[in-house]
Amino acid sequence: MKKELGLVLVTTAMMIYTCQAVSNLHPLILIPGNGGNQLEARLTKDYKPTSLLCNRWYPIERNKEGWFRLWFDPTVLLAPFTTCFAQRMTLYYDKDQDDYCNAPGVETRVPHFGSTQSLLFLDPNLKKITTYMATLVESLENIGYVDGKTMFGAPYDFRYGLAPKDHPCHVGSKFLKDLKDLVEKASNYNGGKPVILVSHSLGGLFTLQLLNRNEPSWRQKFIKHFVALSAPWGGTVDEMLTFASGNTLGVPLVNPLLVREEQRSSESNLWLMPNPKVFRNEKPIVITPNATYSAHNMLQFLNDIGFPDGIYPYKTRTSVLMDQLEAPGVPLTCVIGTGVDTAETLYYDRRGFDEQPEIVCGDGDGTVNMVSLLGHESLWSNAKNQTLKTIRIPGVTHTDILKDDAALGEIVKEISGINSQFLSVEKVNVQ
């Protein structure tokens, strides 16, 4: 039934364009989520390997300048190389500089900014198992979008987050500047038409900050619509599991403790912790024999799990950023999955945080809790001149929203409608 519905919606969307020229399309920019694009690295003489296996010759496959794919690398599945991967992905917070940086001797870069190329597959050699936005991009191409002309990609180093305006944030701030430039170039390249921003997951938080940090006049001129897929407006309970015990993200064979320190070091992971502005009640999220933790006592949680280094940046940077959730000021459509078991409460026994907890689930998309997915409604439903629309897709997970037939049908239909000026503000439930 889902597949048939998706095909009907895609067909309907394509029919809308029968009488339209491709030039009538509003340019569209895709902003991926956490881990949603390729990331490359290069090792310098300052690199200090943790073992012989991690020496500078690994991996063998790299280009003539020494660059290799850091994410996604399938050797991460093998325990010795998991350690190498984690070391190279780890960020360090420099309190004196008040900013995050790479591990010593590790340079990183994001390939193909402006194109959708690095969003399609996380590893082009393993397309079937590392597909990310390929199916969504194909669906958009079917209604006339062309990569580099009317459709663009904005990949970024997803380990880094953002900080309040009065704090340095070199990598994240540069991405926002690059994204703003891309918006203006895409618009100018397409005759001054305003841009449709389509984000997935963490990309929605970056997009919101882009909009919040630019004047209403800029938004009115350059932004047509913001379509947020699976946006975690208020973070996720799943991140508390990540920080406490490590998270394999469903990747088989990987010991979560081998990647826990690297995951804790991620600035964006800290940003995705449950936001007390959205998780408003004092309901315990993590329960242990000695203490309970909600979104409102995160500093104590970070200390008790053995990560006191996270307290200062959370207190001075992340929590301030979490509080700055202003309405985007442009029409917003949120497409979300519902009815999928999603971690809601974590129970730890006396063995502590080095063991995986018992998990009690609630509603969500399998990654993001429903209260966070609907954060736009609780935060901005009364905001002046703010159009909100919610499209719910039952049974669709956080990442399957990018390839499920019913979900794709709704996404393409929405984008087709935006291009055709047929906008609505109602909530939509897909049966």
Overview of this structure, please?
By secondary structure, the protein is α/β, with parallel strands linked by helices. It has one domain (2-38, 113-429): Rossmann fold. The protein is built from 15 helices and 16 strands. A seven-stranded parallel sheet has the order 7-1-8-9-12-15-16, with helices on both faces. It has a four-stranded mixed sheet with strand order 11-10-13-14. Strand 15 (388-394), helix 15 and strand 16 (428-429) form a beta-alpha-beta unit. Helix 1 runs parallel beside helix 15. The chain is globular and about 60 Å long. It starts with a helix and ends with a strand. The relative contact order is 0.15.
Q: How many DSSP-defined strands?
A: 16
Mean pLDDT: 92
Provide a count of the helices.
15
Strand line-up in the sheet with most strands: 7-1-8-9-12-15-16
Biggest sheet layout? 7 strands, parallel
CATH topology: Rossmann fold
Radius of gyration: 21 Å
Give the helix/strand layout.
Elements: H1 2-16, E1 28-31, E2 39-43, E3 68-71, H2 79-89, E4 91-94, E5 99-102, E6 106-109, H3 117-120, H4 134-141, E7 151-153, H5 170-189, E8 195-200, H6 202-212, H7 216-222, E9 223-229, H8 238-245, H9 256-265, H10 267-271, E10 286-287, E11 292-293, H11 298-304, H12 311-323, E12 332-338, E13 342-347, E14 358-362, H13 370-373, H14 375-380, E15 388-394, H15 405-420, E16 428-429
Parallel strand pairs: 1-7, 1-8, 8-9, 9-12, 10-13, 12-15, 15-16
Antiparallel strand pairs: 2-3, 2-6, 4-5, 10-11, 13-14
Helix pairs in contact: 1-15, 2-9, 5-6, 8-9
